[in-house]
Structures
1.
Amino acid sequence: MKKWIVFLLFCLQLLVIVGCSEEKATSIVDEKVKIGVMLSDVGLGDQSFSDSAYSGLEQARDELGILFDYRELTQVGDYETGLTQLVEQGNDLIIGLGFMVEEDLKKVAQEYPEQQFVIVDSVIDLPNVTSVTFKEHEGSFLIGAIAGMRTESNVVGFIGGTDTPLIRKFLNGYNQGIKATNPNAKVISRFAGDFGDDKLGASLTAELIQEGADYVYPSAGFTGVGVIHKAQEEGIYSFGVDSDQYFLGEKTVVTSMLKNIDVAMLKISKELHENGELAGNDLVLGLNEDGVDLAPVRVLSLTSAEKNQLDKLKSDIKSGVITVTE
């Protein structure tokens, strides 16, 4: 009988220990900051926008211990469904990537007024939404400055994913940078109407080459990957966008306009981790805020004079001597 009593007491003690362990594990998870992100239309593997954001959240996970989950458009069929799923998961913050998410995020944010949201690349005027935008025109100015310095044909190209105000910011900055270093150069442009078609990107690049372009700058997501591949195939120079895309064309990609979405993701994660909420102030990130920049210049070598000119232009933008218009 005594043995049975001892055995029962042991079992009860074991159950208490296990229960406490489970409670402790659960509480640790519950205490962590949880972020849900609705990726842009192409999703992971775009080698650009979504991948950069994912990288920033990975860094926040490793450095701050946050938890994050994501949805892709192909999984849910529409942005609203994915956003709603992320809300219902109990995430502390929901992030929508890209201007195409705007309408659905606005709708969901109005349905869940107590939930914190972030929209990247657009502006939503709601008390529970923080907007994050970038000065893409400043980084694109520097890309244009290099193209203007080095073009031999005085014809350079641009391919945009869609003809929207956001993509026009890239083109306008590119134009201004070219004119700053080569007033005689001409810019020809195409808009694909699609961010996910690399074959279309290649076809449009072929058109620009036929018109004499010896440098081409895409702002077109995965469509831009086709631009880079075609440029390398035809022996002209290209530029990457959003992230360092040198590895996509190691004989053609001179540099990339870095749109540091990963920096923005880490900045937001830190604020949420430290304060439990976002202050609600919209973020506008340019050269001064480390929001945009250039990747290392490769493939060709700038002369000392060209490097100095590029550094001076960058410094003048930061100081306000040069204002790059959108």
2.
Amino acid sequence: MQGSCAQRFVFVLFSSFFAIMVLGACGQPVFVGLPTPTPDAIVLSPNEGAPVPPFGPFAELPTVSAVAASGSGLAAAAPALVSVPSGPAFAWQETDNYLILGTDRRAADSSWRTDTIIVVGLDRKLNRAAVLSIPRDLYLEIPDYGFGRINQVDYIGEKLMKVPGGGPALISTVLSQTLGIETDHWMRVEMTGFQEVVDAVGGVTIYLDCPFYEPIFNLTTNSWDYFTLPAGEVHMDGEEAYWYVRLRLKESDIGRSQRQRQFLWAMRDQILNTNLLPRMPQLFTAFSNTFSTDLSMVEIVSLMQFGTMLDSANVRAGGITLRELQSYTTAQGAAVLVINDPARVRAVVDGIWEAPAMVDARRQDANACQPVPQGVPSVATNDPAPTPEVVPAIEVPNGEASVPEGNSPGGG
């Protein structure tokens, strides 16, 4: 009986560590329960040579590098920055690589998209790790299928093509062919239970150099509003954490990925500094229907032991961003991202060890913070009112319908 209890405890602890970074983006839309509109005010593809707009996917967020360059300092209360990494470059071909998938699936027979795809590489020899985020809209060739967004691949492999190893195996193949990264194991988390998990560990505390705000549509008042968090140390409950790692209208999917990585490390700290034994029943309930993996219990325990020994300076995190990709519109009218210059993408993948530490994933210049706007957000949309979008299915070689490319309630 004691052994069974210990196994459950380790399982929940490990699950918590990895689930938070994927659950946040499982529900993508700005609307609560409705698809994201297409904002006219946001620049999706700036003209060559055009200035970077201050708002939208190409916005330049002030980072701590600006602080170092100017000689000014962060507020005294801000956590110290982690030092620049040393040692040899990170070699994905020589590490144990794990595929972390976050999905918006709600029922066993429903379609889903995997809007969070992260590869975690563990270098056991040098006691270090790297975390790489893959954009959900990356458009690439899927073997024996055709072209599609990478967030469709899990569903295509699992339900349409039914390849050996399912969706995670097909994603691993695509990443190997596209980025040269082969993954050894996978973990998949459904969005159900995210808030319960955060609440079950007692909430999560993060430090914000600047106030955070994102436009959000409030279905209760049927109007736009701002979701805001103050600068400084912020303790989030499940609902606040859910919106912090989910919203993306202002900062796009790229900025949201930074927040997810920041939140993941904060979740790790919370787990390491909290006695979870009294909370185990609540945690186990939250994860009972949301977490799946091909890892054995022995492998989970081994990963937990390795993870707790890692120093913050030895966990580097980055991602492929809009600077390495090109906007593209498919024949069906879908806005996607393609690799226009493989060398630039390769530089990000191979240079992951030069990326910021995960604990510094979203550090900003506290002297360049923008105040939270007052009043109602001015968000222009193509629709006069938020209504569900019906997207036609895509034809596939075997005649079945694939997961739609566009938004659906709960996705996007």
3.
Amino acid sequence: MQLGMVGLGRMGANILRRVMQAGHAGIAFDCDTAAVTALADEGAQGAASLAELVRRLEAPRTVWVMLPAGEATEATLRELHSLLSRGDVIIEGGNSFWKDSARRGAEAAQRGLHYLDIGTSGGVWGLKRGYCLMIGGEAEVVKRLDPILAALVPGEGTALPTEGRETRDPRPISGYVHCGPNGAGHYAKMVHNGIEYGMMQAMAEGLDLMRAAPFELDLPDITEAWRRGSVVSSWLLDLTAQALAFDPDLAEYSGHVSDSGEGRWTVDTAVEQAVPVPVLAAALFARFRSRQEASFADKALSAMRKGFGGHLEPKKA
């Protein structure tokens, strides 16, 4: 199959690479010509414009948009609407607000186009580890694109089987799930990221408490031990242990913790639906507080964000 990728940043380029490694053809476009050239050197077809990308794809076309949420994505979708033909598919894999995705799906349908909103988790490690995909859109379109989606996910890996799943959809076992209609994929990803905030905050506060212990606790060794057999073992813990192994004091971090929007959307949605989320809200507010007075816990949060997503702290003025 062919996949056109618009946006060759930290995740877009690696998504296309992983698809190409599975034997599919990739067509790449980005405003940064150097990024296009890099993918072309690896076997993709480079495109100098959206129009050229569409021309290089055979109908029915599939174009994946991986751009920052907001106007950059909106403008690209408007242009694609004028270039694509009935039956073509647009995938939007960035961290867009779920209500925008529901609207965009309806707008695409009015033009005879198909639209999938795919919440994509995996960060800068996705090329090697695979991506977790949360998909919103038409079931038949998801089924048609299964060869591409299956190429992106991790597969069963070393996770223990979940008892009772024998008669259920087999795709979640590999790392992708059809969540429902347009908007559902990005809704699930929004909540996923809200939970991520809470997990990171709990881990960071625990590290801060251990730093204040009346003993000389070795945090690199303790977190390394927790990675094996502990109920708090996780990829976030793996990244934390790695950061502490290199720098037990996390001296390279200021502790200024940014938020990329999904945490705010999660809390706003919870208020809208009258669902109590005190842990998720507190984790978001803790990030706001970090920008006024940072602690060791905030440095740990910064280390985790750099580890999974390549997020760097803002430069000091």
4.
Amino acid sequence: MPKLLLVIIALVFSIAPAMTAEVDAAEKRIAVMWEGKSGMTKRVHSGFLQKMKEIAPGVEVTSKREIDGMQEAERVFREFETKMNGIVFLRSSGAEFLAKANPRIPCFVGGCNNPQDLGAIKNLNAPEGNITGVTYFIPYPKRFQIIKSLFPNTKSVCLLLQKGHPATSIEQDGTRRECERLKLKYNEVVAENSKELIEGARQFQGKVDLFLISSTALVMDNTVGLVGVANSSKTPLFSFAEGRAKLGAVAELAADDEKLGGMLAESVTDVVVKGKPISQVPVKMDPDPKIIINQSIMQLMGLKFPDEIMQKAELAK
């Protein structure tokens, strides 16, 4: 056989798999959806779209944002279920829905608390059903390791929570258990509205060493008001949610939402495009959560953080 023909045949066989992958990707359709408004979810969505364009540009992505209520969200989900190859249902409310939905196609969570605690997945390392994805969850020992490094004299904390939010019971249980382990006094405010939240926090002015912002919408949305309460008694405010240090919390430890969006895109591509079984696509967490410090608030309160933390941390802008 002529040498030139052999070269051509080799090229055809080397290119064919890539062409097949492109065709397969071009035939795939993904839906992204979430209920209600959430800045965190928008950041996850942004990171997801950016990474999908990079690693699977042929996949068609349809987004249904800020759906009004879970009843409408269920209608949208069931419609997508008949048309799509996969559905990304963001937020903790999405994970709770999927826990009961018995989805017929691959589904993915993101922008949510621990999906195991939300009932969507039993085994995060080897998901047993038709659901995997990413979570902003950070194990509580890791959270309190940072807290104890920044505030070594802390003896009592007050966790600020939203009544009825899917993440509330998760954060209550995890924070309380870790406080018990470290022999810290645990207090909490569980509020239904802004007024209850601010008034509840005021009751603990001067009575606790640290306020904790939970990753619940009501608390995150009222960060500025809580900063006023905390600063007036010079009680540090530490956040479990991203973006609160720039609003006046002295420090935060949070997953990078856009990074998680990119990790979510990788999981979706593995399952929907490459055909990897969901059981082989673990739920992913941010392996290196960000520590962000508000230096002006730190100085206002007369705090000094360890050099090793300051070198690693970002400063709030």
